[in-house]
Each structure stands twice: as C-alpha cells, then as structure tokens.
Amino acid sequence: MNSNLLKQNIAFGIFRALSLMVAGVLLWILGFIIYQGIGVISWEFLTTAPSGGMTSGGILPAIVGTLYLIAGSSIVAFPLGILSAIYTSEYAGNGHIVKFIRIMTNNLAGIPSIVFGLFGMSLFVNTLGFGDSILAGSLTLGMLALPLVIRTTEEALKAIPDTFRTGSLALGASKLQTIHRIILPMAFPNIITGLILSIGRISGETAPILFTVAAYFLPQLPHSIYDQVMALPYHLYVIAVSGTDLEATRPMAYGTALVLIVIVLVINVSASALRKKLQKYHA
Amino acid sequence: MLETRNIDFYYGSFHALKNIAMEMEDHTVTAFIGPSGCGKSTFLRLFNRMNDLIPNTRLTGECLIDGEDIYHKSVDVTNLRKRVGMVFQKPNPFPKSIFENVAYGLRVAGISDSRFVAARVEESLKGAALWDEVKDKLKKSAFELSGGQQQRLCIARALAISPSVILMDEPASALDPISTSKIEDLIHILKKDYTIVIVTHNMQQAARVSDKTGFFMLGELVEYNDTKKIFLSPEKEETQNYITGRFG
Ligand SMILES: Nc1ncnc2c1ncn2[C@@H]1O[C@H](COP(=O)(O)OP(=O)(O)OP(=O)(O)O)[C@@H](O)[C@H]1O
Ligand SMILES: [Mg+2]
Predict the structure, then answer these.
(1) Which residues contact B21 (CB under 8 A, 6 or more apart)?
(2) Domain A43-282 sits in which CATH superfamily?
C-alpha cells in the first residue's frame, strides 16, 4: 500500500469513527430518554390532566397545548416565511432592499429566544392586548421560526437551476406562473425539510412561551386562541426543577420528554412521506 | 421576417454586439457561426427578449419581427415569447410528465379545453418526430427519456404554442450523432412552417441545415450570405480562416 493511500485510509478511518460517535451520542440520548421514560407512559398518562400537585396523573393539557402552539406558529411562520423568501430570491434581484432584508433575517436568527419571549410579552400580550394566550404564544414562536423558514426556503429555491426558469419563461409563462408551476413544486421537498426543522425548533422552545402563553398548571383544555395552555417543554421544566416532589416526578419528566420527542418524530416522518410523494417526477 | 438595425448590446460596460444589421426571411433556416464568446447567443436571445432577464444590460438599435419593433413599450413580452419559441443547448424538460411538458405552454396561456390540448400535444410530438417513441408513455416522467428524446421533447414543447419563429442555441451540441441527425432532419421539415435561427459550432451542420449563414466575430457580424456562398467562396478572409479551421 503506498503512503498516500495509507494516509487517506487513516484519515477516513478517523472521520468514520467521529461520525459514528456523533450517531452514538444521539442514540444514547434517545435510548436514555426511552429507558427512563417508557415506564410512565400509559393510556392514563397521555389522556388525563396532572393531579396531586403534579405528582401524578397525566400530561394531556400539555400535549394539546404544544400541538396547538405548533399549529399556530406554523400558520404564522410558514406562509409569511415562504412568501418573503420567494420575494427575496425570485423577484427582488440583488438591490439594497434585499440586502437589508437578508441582514435583518440573519440577525433575527441570532437573537436568543428569551428575548423573543420578552418582546412577545411586550407587543402581543400587553400592547396588542392578546393577554397570555395561544395567539400571543404562536405569534412569538412564529417570529422565532421565521428566519429559519426564510433561509431554508431561499436555499431550496436557489438550488433549482436557472434553466428551468428560462425554459418556462421562453414558453410565454409569466414569472409568477413559472414560480407557481415549476419552481415551487421542484423546491417543495427541500422547503418541507426547512419546515420540519423549524417545527423541531418551535416545539422544544420554553423561553418564548414562558411570558406569552404557558400555564404552570391548567387542567382544562383551551376553548379559543385567547386561552392559556400548558406546553410540554415548560411542563417538563416545571416537574424537573420546581415540583413538589422532584424525586417522585423524575420518571414523569422523562415520560414528558419522550412524548415531546415522539411528536416531533411523527411530524418528521409524515413530512418525509409527503416529501417522497412530491418527488415523484424527479430523476 | 426578422430584422435588426444598428443593434448594439452591452453587458455592463462590455460591448457584446456591435452595430449589427441583419434580415432573415420567413421559412428559411439561418445559421449563426463564430468563435466562442463572439455574441451568437446574445444576438439570438434578442428575438425573444431573454436578455431582458440579465441585469445590467443595455440595448440600442431596432429589432423587428414582421415590421413590429419588439422592444416597443406596448409589446407584451409573454405574448412575444409565444410567437418566438426557443430551444436551448442542454435539454431542459420540466419535472413533469411527457404530456404535461408539451402542454405547458398551452396551460400557462390559459387554454383548458382538454380535447384541444390533447390534440395539440399529439400534433406537436408528431411535429418533433417523437410521437411514435412516446405515445404509449405520455404519463411517464420526461426525465425517463434519453438526451436526444428530451431535446425533441423541448422542440415539441416549443411547437405546441404555435410560434412563427424558432430559435435554437446549439440544440444538438449535447447529443450523440444519431440524435443530432434526427434533429437536423427535423429542422428541414420544420422549415416549411417556421422561420428558424440556429446557433452552431458545427460547420457541417450549418452547411447541411441552413439557407443563410452569418459569421460573427468579437461582437460583429463579419459576413452574412447564402450558406453556399459562405462555405464555398466567402468574401472575407476571417470567414475563410474560420470555416477552414485555421482560427477559433
Ligand atoms: N450574462 C452575462 N453577463 C456578462 N457578460 C456576458 C453574459 N453573457 C455573455 N457575456 C459575454 O458576452 C460575450 C458574448 O457571449 P455569448 O454567450 O453571446 O457568446 P457565444 O457566441 O454564444 O459563445 P459560445 O459559442 O461559447 O456559446 C462573451 O464575451 C461573454 O463573456
Ligand atoms: Mg452561446
């Protein structure tokens, strides 16, 4: 074996070991959560409200709350993010406005989530008078997800070669028709990947919902978007650090974490299935 | 008839086309030849205004189709492009079925009568000499076709919107010899109904398919004449050098 080949093999051997390590760590975390949490998962745990000062009962209100917040913030962030990405990458060229928008979105992405929470409280809860509510929480989480949605959508659009745009325009299609009929369907699988990432982000955030929607303990389910809800990440935090009997509720915390992971996973898998379906005509 | 008068074209400060005047008769095939970077594609793209898409460009002079200035304010560019079809160097079918690729131009024109669309698709595929090869798999993805078939699909796609002019920018340069000769045969047939302008780097191809040939160099139209004349007894020495391969 010549020395170049040897070096290469050693290098790739190290890379492989490192990437296996990363996968191993992920598996370890997942395994640990499952191992610790699976014991408390029961029909009752999933379908009843917490009881006994949150040392017993289930987590239904938190599951429902998190699902509402995922849906609400998706409604806020997806259309807005996708549309503005279409504007900046397909329409606006490379002028000052686009540069400005891009700098702002990048900066938005760097703002710590607790700051979003504070801002959301000031704007949505107080100034606009929505109170602590699903509405205020969704708007706040939506803003948090916006840069991610915009960035990944832009990248998805940029990945489509210009030959498809010119091909469509040369047939007398307008720019809007080209985007609607050719570019978006082609970019959609990658856009969906971005949306999945942002759902992952949204569903796990505690700080932005802390001052805008999350209830410490609220056994009844919400009736409208002006109601407060419990949410899985915050509930997890509560029973992990500030419950009445931390040792006793530890397994419940892991159970809650497990449910959160499973929700994100289910959304992931169904989005991937959708992605596959949409990719039908791609080589 | 295509006609240009004193065309000058700039990419930023780069002077890409210099004072070009040219006339192309209906139902003829005109070939553009010349060394790489001399402006053939740029000139070709003037006629369907695809250069409009490139930022920082400037055009002066007149570009007329059937006497109408296609750069006049009142011209709807999407309508112009329905009259002037284009086939690109690399086949670029859409990620849709074979049928939908050909129907695309009709669909974006707002035509929804499905019988009409189906008839037009068949007619166009026949016109592009592709029908027999694809008639049993119209619903299959266009990406399942070979490169040569894809290029003929792109020609069919252009025919479907009934243009009067077809621009072809090196339509066979990415294809094998058999596919190339199919495209050339096709050009002969299409000439009856369309005015065709083709850019090519292949001298034999220009000689085979075209009635007239324009030789470009460094943004100038050096010589423009009957193809026979250009290849047998060119007037300019540069043309002679280029077609005999002593240059470019
Ligand atoms: N989008 C662009 N921006 C700036 N300059 C360009 C652009 N497109 C072409 N040019 C320049 O204009 C000149 C003519 O280009 P064009 O593509 O028309 O040449 P061509 O004759 O088609 O060449 P080829 O045979 O290689 O296709 C070249 O010097 C090229 O560098
Ligand atoms: Mg070219």
Answers:
(1) B4, B5, B6, B7, B221
(2) MetI-like (1.10.3720.10)
